[in-house]
Amino acid sequence: MVVQEFTVDLNKPLVFQVGHLEERYQEWVHQPIVSKEGPRFFGNDVLEFLTRTKWWAVPTIWLPVVCYLFVKSILMGHTIQEVVLMALFGIFIWTLIEYTLHRFLFHIETKTYWSNTAHYLLHGCHHKHPMDSLRLVFPPTATAILCFPFWNLVACFATPSTTPALFGGGLLGYVMYDCTHYYLHHGQPSKDPAKHLKRYHLNHHFRIQDKGFGITSTLWDTVFGTLPPLMTAGKN
C-alpha cells in the first residue's frame, strides 16, 4: 500500500500542519517563500493576534524599562560612568547570547510532530517567510516572560546595585538586535556597515543557512568559525 506524503496547505492555518511533515520538515522550512504577506498561523483570532508584532513595539515598550533600570543603579550609588560601562558589558554579553540562541536553539534539527511545531513557532516561520514584517521581532509578551529567568541569572553573578544596569544593558542589546534585524530585512542601507550586514544576513537566509548566525555583528561567527564562505549572493 502506498501512503501519500503529507502536503502543507498554505491557504490554511500553518502551525498545526507543519508537524506532520516529520523528517521532511527541515527541507521544507528552509525553502523560503518571499512575500510581504505572511501566512495565517492559527484559526483562533486571539492566538493569531498574539503572533503579530509591529517592529516599533519593541523600542516603545522596552526602552523605558532600560532607562528605569539604569536610573535604579544610579540611585543605588553608582556613577553615570559606571552605569555606562556596565551597560556596554551587558550589550556585549547579549551579542554572545544572540549568537548562541540563533545557532544552537533556533537552528536545532527536529523531525517529530511537536518538535517541528515548536521550532516553526520559534524560528522556522521566519526562515519560511523571511519577509513577513509582522513576525520578525519577538512578541513583547514572550519577551516579558523570558525577562524573569534572565534577571535571576544576572542576579546570581552580580550585586543588587549592579544587576539593574547589567540587565538593562542586555535588554538594550536585545532592542538593538530586534530593530537591526527588522532593518536588515526591510531597510535599504546604502553604506557599510549596515549594507554589509544586510548582505551577510540575507546570505544566511537564501544561500548558506547553517553559517552566519550573527545579526548585529559577525564577531562570534569569526570567533567560533561559522563565517560563511565568500558571499556571492545577488541583490535582494
TrEMBL record:
Under the heading PANTHER family, the entry gives: ALDEHYDE OXYGENASE (DEFORMYLATING), FATTY ACID HYDROXYLASE
Q: Which cofactor does it need?
A: Zn(2+)
Q: Which residues form the Fatty acid hydroxylase domain?
A: 88-226
Name the domain of life.
Eukaryota
Q: Where in the cell is it found?
A: Endoplasmic reticulum membrane
InterPro entries per UniProt: Fatty_acid_hydroxylase, Scs7
Organism, scientific name: Digitaria exilis
For this chain, the family text in UniProt reads: Belongs to the sterol desaturase family.
The UniProt GO MF terms for this protein read: fatty acid 2-hydroxylase activity; iron ion binding
Principal localization reads endoplasmic reticulum
Q: GO terms for biological process?
A: fatty acid biosynthetic process
What keywords are annotated for this sequence in UniProt? Endoplasmic reticulum, Fatty acid biosynthesis, Fatty acid metabolism, Lipid biosynthesis, Lipid metabolism, Membrane, Metal-binding, Oxidoreductase, Transmembrane, Transmembrane helix, Zinc
Q: Does the keyword field hold Acetylation?
A: no
Q: How does it sit in the membrane?
A: Multi-pass membrane protein
Which regions span the lipid bilayer? 55-71, 83-101
Q: Which GO terms describe its cellular component?
A: endoplasmic reticulum membrane
User: What protein name applies here?
Assistant: Fatty acid hydroxylase domain-containing protein
